[in-house]
Write a structure and sequence with these properties.
This protein is an alpha+beta fold and 520 residues long. The chain is 54% helix and 10% strand. The radius of gyration is 25 Å and the shape is globular. The relative contact order is 0.14.
């Protein structure tokens, strides 16, 4: 009995110490001392609110801004999606300090600071801790792993995105796009005026899911679309819960939303496992040279002598990478295509220019990697689309040690926010027309488009820049070349211009367009 009392007393002491550390130190004392130290360095921001930080203020401003509807020629959507950044920058200057729950964030706007952070190879700036649902959605793949694990993953995956292999994938990209276009042509033929109004953003999502299924995983459309739907549902949960501050351990409680998330995680994992197993069965000893094949070759495999030899990736790591690349493979490119069609509808003179370029370079031939690489004006338009309507609105890094950045002392574990969408509209860097659509700014290449060579941050920069950027650009060119040869397009009267941040930048009400078949 005495031993039980001692054990109970020890547990109570531990509980009291934990509560003291969590409530007093983490939720009260640490935010106070951090804000004080930064104020002494001239960095200010909105006040910290116990436990919730600035999250409720952000929610309130976003709800109010969500009712804003923009003119078609107005590409400054920041008041809609980032009203808190604009308000606090105007009020406190930049950089400023704000709070995600009890976690400090410093928001920077300076390109040189962004370059130092994103180009660093020191390991002092890691990807920030991910929301549990975002982690379930993306997996702990190349985007989120760090250190030696990132080096190992990158070494395995990098060959799959070599330019010569991407050009070989173009045939599949074009074939998938032609199937989509054929379906749209069949729909148009049933109408007397041959016009066809479609929600093109939805078609692009299914198309890019089909393309990544075939090019990277060699899987069927059926399995690809199952993974697509599971990830879309996880994305919806992530958006709804992103600004919710969770109590420690809350993620493990069987709430309705957690149970839904767990079920979707299981469904996604089972679907990806089927894709992997079908490759293991069909390929025998050789797994192929696409992304999945390279990862399977790098998996733990028995040597000829019967001993286990660790090469590079475990099966669990392969599943995480499949999550990462499947989501990145369809989401980012489908949005690039969506916003490109939007801009070409608003600026029909550029639609005509690109169509003439496609006809000039591709003629009546099927687009190929070689002739798509010659589409200079297409490249300019895609880059300008990424500048104005890039999928990623911002990125974050976390300091791993106390350090000095731009003369400011930043403590370990501090979140640094780099708002791409804000910086892409910096008139000091991009010129007075920074809010306008002007593809000609890229006529001399990316590095000469602005006053600093690293101004375009859509694919990030430095060692953690997007490994799939050449794949995404070639896929976008393939799809746009096929569409431009078959259709002219205009926005439907039903279109409402209201970009929204759903982890990535979407048109809130979709992209309804009117397609008119062409005879080229």
């Amino acid at each position: 009995m005495a031993s039980f009392a001692l054990l109970l007393g020890a547990l109570m002491v531990l509980a009291i110490l934990w509560l003291w550390d969590y409530i007093v130190v983490s939720l009260i004392w640490r935010p106070y001392t951090i804000a004080k130290k930064l104020r002494e360095q001239g960095i200010h921001g909105p006040p910290y609110n116990f436990f919730k930080g600035c999250n409720e203020d952000i929610k309130r401003m976003k709800v109010k801004a969500d009712g804003l509807v923009m003119d078609l020629h107005d590409h400054n959507y920041l008041p809609r999606i980032a009203p808190h950044y604009l308000k606090w920058r105007a009020q406190y200057g930049g950089p400023f300090l704000y709070w995600f729950g009890s976690k400090p964030r410093i928001c920077i706007f300076d390109y040189e600071l962004a370059r130092q952070i994103l180009s660093s190879k020191s390991g002092h700036f890691l990807k920030n801790d991910s929301h549990p649902t975002v982690l379930a959605l993306l997996g702990k793949g190349l985007v989120l792993v760090e250190g030696v694990d990132w080096v190992r993953h990158r070494r395995v995956i990098n060959p799959a995105f070599a330019m010569d292999k991407i050009k070989m994938m173009t045939k599949t990209m074009v074939a998938c796009a032609q199937n989509m276009v054929k379906e749209l042509e069949d729909q148009a033929s049933k109408n007397k005026n041959r016009l066809n109004q479609v929600e093109l953003d939805k078609h692009f999502q299914e198309l890019t899911a089909d393309i990544i299924s075939h090019t990277a995983f060699g899987s069927s459309y059926k399995l690809g679309i199952e993974a697509f739907h599971a990830q879309k549902e996880l994305q919806e949960i992530a958006v709804k819960t992103l600004l919710n501050v969770q109590l420690p351990g809350f993620n493990f409680l069987p709430t309705e939303r957690n149970r839904q998330k767990w079920a979707l995680e299981k469904k996604l994992k089972n679907t990806l496992t089927q894709i992997i197993q079908s490759r293991l069965v069909s390929e025998g000893d050789a797994y192929g040279n696409d992304l999945l094949g390279l990862m399977l070759e790098a998996c733990i495999a028995p040597s000829e002598g019967g001993n286990q030899q660790q090469l590079s990736l475990s099966m669990d790591e392969i599943i995480h990478e499949c999550k990462t690349f499947f989501f990145a493979g369809y989401e980012t490119t489908s949005l690039l295509l969506t916003w490109t069609v939007f801009l070409l509808s608003v600026y029909p003179e550029w639609q005509d220019r690109l169509r003439k370029e496609v006809v000039r370079e591709c003629g009546h031939e099927t687009p190929s990697g070689d002739n798509l690489s010659k589409l200079k004006e297409m490249t300019m338009v895609l880059l300008e689309t990424l500048r104005l309507y890039g999928p990623a609105v911002f990125t974050q890094r976390k300091t791993t040690t106390d350090m000095v950045l731009g003369g400011t002392k930043i403590p370990q574990g501090f979140g640094i926010v780099i708002p791409f969408a804000v910086m892409h509209r910096d008139k000091k860097i991009w010129g007075d027309d920074a809010d306008e659509f002007n593809p000609l700014r890229f006529q001399n290449g990316v590095t000469r488009a602005a006053k600093v060579p690293h101004a375009l941050l859509a694919f990030s920069i430095g060692p953690r820049s997007c490994i799939g950027q050449n794949f995404a650009m070639m896929e976008a060119k393939s799809v746009m070349a096929v569409i431009l040869k078959k259709f002219s397009f205009t926005l439907s009267p039903d279109y409402v211009h209201a970009p929204v941040d759903l982890l990535t930048l979407h048109p809130k009400f979709g992209l309804p367009v009117v397609l008119r078949p062409l005879d080229i």
